[in-house]
Specification:
Structural class of chain A: mainly alpha
Number of domains of chain A: 3
CATH class of the largest domain in chain B: Alpha Beta
Radius of gyration of chain A: 29 Å
Radius of gyration of chain B: 18 Å
Shape of chain A: globular
Strand content of chain B: 15-25%
Number of helices of chain B: 9
Largest interface: A-B, 36 and 44 residues
Structural class of chain B: alpha/beta
Oligomer: heterodimer
Chain lengths: ~575, ~260
C-alpha cells in the first residue's frame, strides 16, 4: 500500500511542479492570473458572497421543500447507477496502472482502495467548486462544513455507482440478461412511483402555485412509508443543510456511517473488474491516440469507408486536399446527401406551410410555422457561434499531427485555409438552409400584396453572402490561439484526455474575450463601408435591390479582405510553429 | 553491405551532396540535443544513423525533414536550403516516422489521392497502383486505415512516401513492430530506392545487423555529437576490425561507471 501511496503523492507533486514550471512562460502565467481573478470575482465574490447575503434561503428547516428536493434529486442520481450503469465494472485504470499493478502481488481490495484514494483529489476539487456555485442556495454553516458535505455526497455517489457496477457484473456473470435487469429496476421504480402517486392523491389539496406544490411535496416526503424510504438518503444530504457547527457535527456522523457502509460494500465485493478495466483502458488509450493523430472521437467503433463528395484531382490548389479530407471526415457523400434531402424536405414543408398559412391561418398551422421557423432561427444564431469554433477545432486536430504536416510541401496558409474550409462550407450550407426555411415561414406573416416579400428576400440574400466570410472570420482567433498556445490545446495532454490546469481556464477566457473584441473591431470597417455604400446608392436614387447589392458587395469585400488577412496570419503562425518549443 | 554504383565518397561538412548538413545544432532551452553536426549524403548512399538512446538521432532527422527548426547550422536537401526554401526542399523528401500516421477515416486509395494533391503528382493513379501492387496492397485499397494491421499501415505510409518519387528519404526506426517477412520486404524496398533511383537515404535504427546489410555509410552520434562517420570498413578499421555492434557497445559504454 505504501508503494501505491507513493504513486499517488508523487504523481500529484510532479503534476503540480510541471504546471508551476510552465508558469515561467509569460503566456501561461497570464492565463493563471486571469483564471484566479475570474474564480475570485465571479465564483467567490459574485456567486458565493453576494448571493449568500440573500436572506430568502436561510432558515430552511430539514423538512423544507429545498431539502426534500435535494434528497429526491439524490435518490434519482443513485437510481441511475442501477438503471443506466456506467460500464461493466465502473472502475477505470490507465494502461500504465494496468501494466504495473495488475501483475503485481496486490490484492483486489488493495487495487480498489487505491482507486478510491486516487479519486479523492478530484472529488475534493469538485467539492470546493460545488460549494462556490451552490452558494446561492446555502442554508447556513460555513464554507468548510459545506465543502465537507459536498465531499460526503460526491463520495457516496461515486462509491454507490462503483458498488452497483460490481453487483451488476456479478449478476451478469451468473447469467442475468441485460433486459431482465432493466425490467426489474423499471418495475421497482414503477412500484415506487405508484406508491408516491397514491400518497399524493391522499393528501389534502394545498394552495395553488409553485409554492403550494413544493409545500405538498415536502409534506409527502415527510409522511407515510415514503418518509422511511427516504431516511438514508436524507441522512447523506443532511450535513449540507445543517445550521452551524453543532448541527453539522450531529448530522455528519450518520452520513459518514452510510459512506463507510458503501466503502465496505465496494471493498468486499468480490467482483472481477480486471477484464472490463483492461478493455476500458484500451478503448481510452485508443481514443487519446486518435485525438493525438488529429481525430477526436467519442467511440472506438470503426465505421465504413466513405465516398468523397467530389473526386480529388492529383494537381491543383493544395488546400482543396484538406477540404476534401474534411468532408470525408464529416461523413462523405452519403451523410451530406442525407442532410441535403432533410433540408429539401424541410424547405418543401416550409413552402407548403407558407401557402397554407396565408390562405387559412388556422391555429395549428400558425403554431407549426412559429415552432419550425423559430427553431431555424435559433439554430442559425447558435451556428453563428459554433461554426467558427468547429472550424478552429478542425485546425487544432490537424495540428496534433504536426510531424506529418510539417513535411508537406505547402505554405502554411494553404493548410490553415484547407483545414478551416470543411466546417465553414458545411456550416454555411446549413445556415443558408436554416435562413431560407426560417424566412419562408416568417413571410407567412407578411402581406402578400405588398413589396415586403421581394425586399425581404433581397435582404436575406445580402445576409447570405456574409455568412461564409463571417464563419471564416470567427474561426481565425481560436485557430490562432491553438497555433500560438498549443500547450493547452493538445489533445490527450493529461490522463483525462484533455489539457487541464488553472492557466488553461484563464487562457481560454482570455481568448473568448479577445474573440468578441476582435469580431466587434472587425465589424467597424465592414459596417462603415457597408453604410457608405448604402447611403451613396441612396443618393443616386437607385433601386432597393441594387442598394442591397452595393452594400453587401462593399461590406463583403472588406470582410473578405479581413478573413484573407486572418488566414495569412494563421499561415505565418503555422510556418513558424516550433514543435520543439512546447 | 549493399554495393552502390553511384555512391561517392562521403564528405565532411556541407558539400554538393543530396543531403548536406553543416554545423547543425539544436537546443531545447539550455540543453543541446545536437551539436555542430556536419555530414553529406550523396545520391544512392544509405547512411545509418546510430547512437544510444537520447543521442539526438530523432532530433537530427526531424531537423533535416523540416519538422523542427535547427537552432544553428545549414541543411540543404536536393540543393535547397530547408530554412530558406522549405517548400522546394520538402518536395524532394519523404519522412517515415517509427509509427505510421494515417487518417482513420480515409481508405488506402484516399490516402494516395490526398498525398498526390499535396505533392502535385500528375500520374498518381498509375504510380499509386504500381506501388500498391509492389507492396501487395492492391486488394486493400478500399479498406479504412483502422481496418489495417500495423504492417499494412506501414506499407501505406511507404506508398504515400514513395508516390512523389522523392530524391531524399528519412527513416526513423522503420522496422519497429514488423514481422520478419515485412522487415525483409521493407529492407529490399529501401535498397532498391537507393540502387535503382539514386535516392539519398538516412535510416535511424537500433537494429545494427539490419543497418549493416542496408547502409553504405554510418554516422555514429552520442550526446548530439558526431563520434564516427564513414563507410563501415573505415569505421571498423579505426576500431581494430570490431563489428558494428561491438563498436556501438564500446562507444555507448564509454560513460559507464563515470
Amino acid at each position: 500500500m505504501s508503494a501505491l501511496g507513493y504513486l499517488i503523492t508523487r504523481s500529484l507533486a510532479n503534476s503540480l511542479v510541471h504546471r508551476i514550471k510552465r508558469l515561467r512562460q509569460p503566456k501561461y502565467l497570464l492565463g493563471a492570473a486571469l483564471a484566479v481573478a475570474y474564480i475570485y470575482f465571479y465564483f467567490y465574490q459574485f456567486l458565493y458572497l453576494a448571493a449568500g447575503a440573500s436572506p430568502g434561503m436561510k432558515g430552511v428547516s430539514t423538512g423544507g421543500s429545498i431539502y426534500v428536493g435535494a434528497t429526491i434529486l439524490f435518490v434519482g442520481i443513485l437510481t441511475l447507477a442501477w438503471v443506466l450503469p456506467a460500464s461493466r465494472a465502473a472502475i477505470t485504470f490507465t494502461e500504465a496502472e494496468i501494466a504495473f499493478l495488475f501483475p503485481a502481488p496486490l490484492k483486489r481490495q488493495t487495487l480498489i482502495i487505491f482507486k478510491i484514494l486516487r479519486s479523492q483529489i478530484g472529488l475534493l476539487f469538485i467539492s470546493v467548486f460545488f460549494t462556490l456555485i451552490t452558494g446561492r442556495w446555502r442554508m447556513g454553516g460555513d464554507a468548510w462544513t459545506r465543502t465537507g458535505s459536498w465531499w460526503l455526497i460526491l463520495n457516496t455517489v461515486a462509491l454507490h455507482r462503483l458498488g452497483a457496477s460490481f453487483a451488476l457484473s456479478r449478476l451478469y456473470a451468473r447469467g442475468l440478461a441485460d433486459w431482465k435487469r432493466r425490467l426489474f429496476f423499471v418495475a421497482v421504480v414503477a412500484g415506487f412511483a405508484l406508491l408516491v402517486w397514491q400518497a399524493w392523491t391522499a393528501l389534502p389539496p394545498g394552495p395553488a402555485g409553485p409554492a403550494g406544490t413544493f409545500a405538498k411535496v415536502a409534506q409527502l416526503a415527510n409522511s407515510g412509508v415514503i418518509q422511511w424510504v427516504l431516511v438514508p438518503f436524507k441522512l447523506v444530504v443532511a450535513p449540507y443543510y445543517a445550521h452551524g457547527l453543532r448541527e453539522f457535527a450531529a448530522a455528519v456522523f450518520p452520513a459518514l456511517g452510510i459512506l463507510l457502509a458503501h466503502f465496505l460494500w465496494v471493498v468486499r465485493a468480490d467482483a472481477s473488474f480486471e477484464d472490463a478495466a483492461i478493455e476500458n483502458a484500451r478503448r481510452r488509450a485508443k481514443l487519446i491516440a486518435s485525438a493525438q493523430k488529429g481525430d477526436v472521437r467519442f467511440s472506438t467503433k470503426s465505421g465504413k469507408a466513405r465516398v468523397p463528395l467530389f473526386a480529388l484531382r492529383a494537381t491543383g490548389f493544395q488546400a482543396t486536399a484538406f477540404l476534401w479530407k474534411s468532408l470525408i471526415r464529416i461523413g462523405g457523400k452519403r451523410t451530406l446527401s442525407r442532410w441535403a434531402a432533410f433540408f429539401l424536405a424541410l424547405a418543401a414543408a416550409a413552402v407548403w406551410l407558407n401557402h397554407r398559412g396565408l390562405r387559412d391561418p388556422s391555429a395549428g398551422v400558425i403554431a407549426l410555422v412559429v415552432i419550425i421557423g423559430g427553431a431555424c432561427y435559433i439554430a442559425l444564431i447558435i451556428s453563428l457561434v459554433m461554426v467558427g469554433q468547429q472550424a478552429a477545432g478542425q485546425l487544432r486536430q490537424g495540428i496534433a499531427g504536426m510531424d506529418l504536416l510539417k513535411t508537406y510541401p505547402l505554405p502554411g496558409w494553404q493548410f490553415a485555409l484547407g483545414e478551416l474550409l470543411g466546417p465553414v462550407v458545411v456550416g454555411t450550407l446549413i445556415q443558408w438552409a436554416a435562413l431560407g426555411v426560417g424566412t419562408t415561414l416568417a413571410l407567412t406573416f407578411i402581406d402578400s400584396e405588398g413589396h415586403g416579400i421581394g425586399r425581404a428576400w433581397i435582404a436575406i440574400a445580402g445576409v447570405a453572402v456574409f455568412l461564409p466570410l463571417f464563419n471564416l472570420g470567427t474561426s481565425i482567433l481560436p485557430a490562432a490561439a491553438a497555433l500560438a498556445l498549443p500547450g493547452w490545446f493538445k489533445p490527450g495532454d493529461v490522463a483525462g484526455g484533455a489539457p487541464a490546469g488553472l492557466e488553461v481556464v484563464g487562457l481560454r477566457l482570455l481568448v473568448g474575450i479577445m474573440q468578441i473584441l476582435l469580431i466587434l473591431l472587425a465589424f467597424v470597417p465592414v459596417a462603415f463601408f457597408g453604410a457608405a455604400a448604402w447611403f451613396a446608392a441612396g443618393m443616386f436614387g437607385i433601386d432597393f435591390a441594387w442598394k442591397v447589392a452595393a452594400t453587401a458587395g462593399s461590406a463583403g469585400f472588406v470582410l473578405a479582405l479581413e478573413a484573407a488577412s486572418g488566414v495569412a496570419w494563421l499561415g505565418w503562425l503555422f510556418d513558424r510553429f516550433d514543435l520543439s518549443g512546447e | 553491405m549493399v554495393s552502390l554504383d553511384s555512391a561517392g565518397e562521403s564528405t565532411e561538412g556541407a558539400g554538393t551532396g543530396m543531403i548536406a548538413v553543416d554545423g547543425l545544432t539544436k537546443l531545447y532551452g539550455d540543453f543541446a540535443a545536437v551539436t555542430e553536426l556536419s555530414f553529406t549524403v550523396n545520391p544512392g548512399e544509405v547512411l545509418g544513423l546510430v547512437g544510444p538512446n537520447g543521442a539526438g538521432k530523432t532530433t537530427t532527422l526531424r531537423c533535416l525533414a523540416g519538422i523542427i527548426p535547427a537552432t544553428r547550422g545549414k541543411i540543404t536537401i536536393a540543393e535547397h536550403d530547408i530554412a530558406e526554401d522549405p517548400l522546394a526542399a520538402k518536395q524532394a523528401l519523404s519522412f517515415f516516422s517509427d509509427e505510421p500516421r494515417l487518417f482513420d477515416y480515409l481508405t488506402v486509395q484516399q490516402h494516395l489521392d490526398f498525398t498526390a494533391r499535396l505533392y502535385q503528382v500528375a500520374d498518381a493513379k498509375e504510380r499509386g497502383m504500381a506501388l500498391l501492387e509492389e507492396l501487395d496492397m492492391a486488394d486493400k485499397r478500399d479498406l479504412l486505415a483502422t481496418e489495417l494491421s500495423r504492417g499494412m499501415k506501414q506499407k501505406v505510409a511507404l506508398a504515400c512516401g514513395f508516390l512523389h518519387e522523392p530524391r531524399v528519404m528519412f527513416f526513423d526506426e522503420p522496422l519497429t513492430g514488423l514481422d520478419p517477412l515485412a522487415i525483409r520486404r521493407t529492407k529490399e524496398l529501401i535498397i532498391r530506392q537507393a540502387r535503382d533511383r539514386g535516392v539519398a537515404i538516412i535510416i535511424s535504427s537500433h537494429l545494427l545487423h539490419l543497418l549493416e546489410e542496408v547502409c553504405s555509410h554510418f554516422l555514429i552520434v552520442k550526446r548530439g555529437r558526431k563520434v564516427e562517420h564513414g563507410t563501415l570498413a573505415d569505421i571498423r578499421a579505426a576500431h581494430e576490425g570490431a563489428d558494428l555492434e561491438e563498436i556501438f557497445v564500446r562507444i555507448a559504454g564509454e560513460d559507464a561507471g563515470k
